[in-house]
Amino acid sequence: VSGLDPAQPYFQGTPIEVRLDKSDAEFVDIIHTDSAPTIPNLGFGMRPAIGHLDFYPNGGEEMPGCDKNPVSQIVDLDGIWEGTRDFIACNHLRSYKYYSDSIIYPDGFLGYPCPSYNLFEDGTCFPCPEEGCPTMGHYADRFKDKVKTEFTKLYLNTREAKDFPLWRYKVSVTLSGKSKVKGYVNVALYGTDGNTKQHQITKGTLNPDNTYTAYIDAEVNVGEVTKVKFLWNNNWINPTLPKLGAATITVEVGQNR
User: Fold this and answer.
1) 167-253 falls under which CATH superfamily?
2) May I ask the CATH class of domain 1-165?
3) For 74, which of 22, 32, 83, 118 could close a Cys bridge (C-beta 3.0–4.6 Å)?
4) Distance, CA of 117 to chain centre
5) Are the C-beta atoms of residues 149 and 51 closer than 8 Å to each other?
6) Where is the PLAT domain (predicted)?
7) Which residues contact 69 (CB under 8 A, 6 or more apart)?
8) In the chain, which stretches have pLDDT less than 70?
9) DSSP 8-state class, residue 111
10) Per-residue model confidence as pLDDT tens digits over 185-204
11) pLDDT computed for residue 192 by the predictor
12) Cis ω on the peptide bond leading into residue 6 (within 30° of 0)?
């Protein structure tokens, strides 16, 4: 059974006879997309972990793309009916959109086991454990024989609109140069299956010999990394024309460590 944002009102906190739980099937996976409290947030979805695998995309409460203004939301590419539904229950309805996208992307929507979304965001739960990460949605059951704990909470990020999946990388850049400058550092990844746009690694004071690390959610699975593109920019014209380079760039892939 795949629970697509199971309902919170009248169900959360009730006995298991009343609501969906892991005893209802051999394998129960859940996608939580609207789990903020019903009062005052109007969250329609259940917050607690109730399945064998519980996925909390974007933290499970507010989905990216759901905060668009009402007019642009109602005048939707998929039609007025779809747009109106999204305006009323956008977070709640994201669950089935992620699920349908997951059918097309068997390697997408990797869920990282983690105690909380904050820890996932700051990279504590990266990369995937030895046995790998389950994938949210249609292919979650490929992981059913590897579930070890009573409840497994899994976190991931998605895009604002379809295609929704993102692939997580850890990128560390050690700078080289003569003097510290202000500005930002961007990196793009190139690989056997595609390349990413530029992602910002750091911004502010850039010190040569320092290492800066960021976790980037890329819009494409690049496959085997073949090349990285490094770009830095200081935000204003500097008459001394400072030079800055990358001594090393390390890329770690979440999926296969």
Assistant:
1) PLAT/LH2 domain (2.60.60.20)
2) alpha beta
3) 83
4) 10
5) no
6) 167-257
7) none
8) 39-41, 68-87, 235-239
9) P
10) 999 999 999 999 999 999 99
11) 97
12) no
